[in-house]
Design a protein that fits this description.
By secondary structure, the protein is mainly beta. The protein contains two helices and 16 strands.
Length: 275
């Protein structure tokens, strides 16, 4: 009996010690569909931004706070948006896509009396990758644009090749549209054989503009087409997303040269966004 009790006491002592050592472990669950990185060992929360937004469009300002929890490698692991002191959404940073803790929130009305919250996140890499996730604060913070879904739909879509005449072509592999890009400066390739350029970078910038003048603003995603060396620019690709039925739908692509002169506009073909 004494041996059994001593053995049980040892288990309790060890268990208490483990609990004491791990009591600061992060255990809060994020909403369904998100995940928390397993390498988060303790809370390392940083305040990124505090802003006042009129979310209800009733002349009452709400305090909106953006924080990020860093993992043990000092990479962003979990972003949190809180309104008036209450957490409304958690956004995990999947697979270290955005390694920088730089981010900001903006309030934008794409349609009259319809404010949306835009969360911009930025990469620390040389490609300058930018993400924007869009939420509807008037509809239980429903996410209506997931930036990674848009980025994945464009990844690998555009190929660039030099032709025998020392010209470059941008090829949309989905629609098979080909656009000749003029070469200038360091982009002129005189070597043999011709080495292909690097191609289109990830989305680096988002702008908001009423493109068609209908009173509803469009979201425009910009990609740079890298030249013979990555620092060189052959042109740009713009993806135009139209806001309708409280979602964003890619409707067209614009291809521009290095001087932002429009070379081609085509209807968007291929995978549409599921949200």
């Amino acid at each position: 009996m004494t041996k059994t009790i001593n053995h049980g006491m040892k288990i309790l002592i060890v268990g208490a010690l483990i609990f004491t050592l791990t009591g600061c472990a992060y255990t809060e669950k994020a909403p369904l569909g998100s995940k928390i990185e397993s390498n988060i060992i303790e809370k390392n929360m940083r305040t990124v931004q505090v802003a006042s937004f009129d979310l209800g469009q009733k002349g009452v300002l709400n305090k909106v706070k953006l924080t990020v929890e860093m993992d043990k490698y000092e990479n962003p692991a979990l972003w949190t948006i809180a309104v008036d002191g209450k957490d409304v959404i958690h956004i995990p940073s999947f697979n270290g896509t955005y390694m920088s803790s730089k981010a900001d929130l903006k309030l934008e009305s794409f349609a009259p009396n319809k404010p949306l919250i835009l969360l911009y996140r930025y990469s620390s890499g040389s490609g300058g990758k930018t993400a924007v996730d869009i939420y509807d604060p008037q509809d239980h913070w429903r996410q209506i644009l997931f930036s990674d879904e848009l980025a994945n739909s464009l990844e690998g879509r555009f190929n660039v090749q030099y032709t025998a005449e020392n010209k470059a072509e941008l090829i949309d592999v989905v629609s098979n549209v080909k656009v000749e890009l003029p070469l200038t400066g360091d982009n002129i390739n005189t070597t043999t054989p011709l080495r292909p350029p690097i191609g289109a970078d990830p989305i680096s910038e988002y702008t908001i503009e009423d493109v068609d003048g209908d009173g509803i603003k469009e979201l425009i995603a910009l990609q740079r087409v890298a030249g013979y060396v990555h620092a060189g620019t052959l042109g740009y690709v713009k993806t135009i997303l139209k806001y309708e039925s409280n979602t964003f739908k890619p409707v067209s692509l614009e291809i521009l040269d290095a001087e932002n002169k429009r070379l081609k506009t085509e209807a968007f073909q291929g995978q549409t966004l599921s949200r």
